Structures are given as C-alpha cells and as structure tokens.
Amino acid sequence: MKKMIIASTSTIHGSRYLEYLLPTLAVFFKNVKTILFIPYARPSGISYDDYTKIAKKAFIKINIDVKGIHEFKKPKDAIEKAEAIFTGGGNTFELVNQLYKNNLISTLKEVLEKGTPYLGTSAGSNICGINMKNTNDMPIVYPPSFTTLGCIPFNINAHYLDPIHGSTHMGETRATRIKEFHIFNETPVLGLREGSWLEVLNNKVILNGKLTARLFLQNNDAVELESGVEVRL
C-alpha cells in the first residue's frame, strides 16, 4: 500500500525548511526513527553532506534522524532497508540522472509500491509521476531516460505559477508550456502551487494545503481542484 506525501516545495515564503509541513510529517512518519534522504538533486551545487544536514536540522524537530543515501556503500540496499524515504528538491535532471546511474529507479519504485513511507518535495515530487517532462528545471545533464517512478497516474508541475494580471511579460506562461506538452503527450499534468501537497494512500490521491491545484488534461480545459478533494482523472 503506497503511503506518500508529494509536496510542491520544501520552503514557503516566511518559513524555514519543511516548517509548514512538519505537523503533517509528525503524524505521517509516526513511529519512524530514521529517514533515508536522497540528496541527488542538490540545489545550487551544495554538497550531499550539507544538503543532508539541512534535512536533518528540520526532522530533528519531530524527533526523527536523517541519513543520506550517499553515506552507504550500497545505496540499493539502503533503499530496500529504509524505514522511510525523503527525496529533496533541486534539479530534476540531475536527480533522475543519478537515480539511473546508481540503478535505483526500479528499486525505489518497488519499495514505495510495497508501502515504505515517502516524502518528495519539488524535484523529489516530479519523479513520482509518469515522467519528468513537466519539470521547470534547465537540462544541465542528460539522464538516460525521462521515465520516472509512475507512482501516480499523472505528472507533477511543481511550483505552479498563474499568469500575473496586468504583467507586460511576453514569454510563455506555465499553462502555455503544459498545453504545448499535450500536443505530443497524453499524460495528465497537475499544477501544484506553493504550500500545497498530495497525500497518497494506495491509489487514492488527496490534495492538501490552502490553495487549489490546476489539473490539465489533453484536449480539455484545465480544471481547478479544491483542497481536500481526491484527484480523479
């Protein structure tokens, strides 16, 4: 039975790392003593060690320890034996590249399908969908495949932004880019706004947070989903 939290971001304006999610995580990870952290996306090029320290500082507030996957000689074994797993944000291309490089994609999917509790933020949420084609990141590396975990039957567009009313910016909006994606792809896309997250219990996906989310379907108008509702395709 899948048990996942898929969050748009780790940090919202005016709060510290994971602070807005900690009350939820304290319940979600009840009885978990140590979380395995996957820092492969590492934002701004910080070291895996430093990124792990950031996660550790947040989780200690709810009495949970954090170990980075890079600390283990056999990362595959670490995933298989983990009490719970957290994949942080950063660059999705590099995250997926490292997961394939270390032969971890299938192992990670297997343990999540069997019920290992999982938290993803940003890039760590992008990999929960069918593929990573709706990431906002620059392709700084070229992973062997864009196919990701497929734990949910749609893609995530984390940090989803609405067009700013009255803006003179002439570039593409996020909605426009997703519409372009749907010219060539059938996969539904959920625009997940900052401070929103999905809770996955087996095949049931519930939207949480104060804001709505925007569901994009090929050849259909986008639909606003209210917080607290199940995401149905």
TrEMBL record:
Q: What is its EC number?
A: 3.4.13.21
Q: What class of enzyme is it?
A: hydrolase
Source organism's superkingdom?
A: Bacteria
Q: Name one GO molecular function term.
A: dipeptidase activity
Q: Which UniProt keywords apply?
A: Dipeptidase, Hydrolase, Protease, Serine protease
Q: Which family does this protein fall into?
A: Belongs to the peptidase S51 family.
Please state what the protein is called.
Dipeptidase PepE
Tell me the lineage of the source organism. Bacteria, Pseudomonadati, Bacteroidota, Flavobacteriia, Flavobacteriales
Write the gene name. Answer: pepE
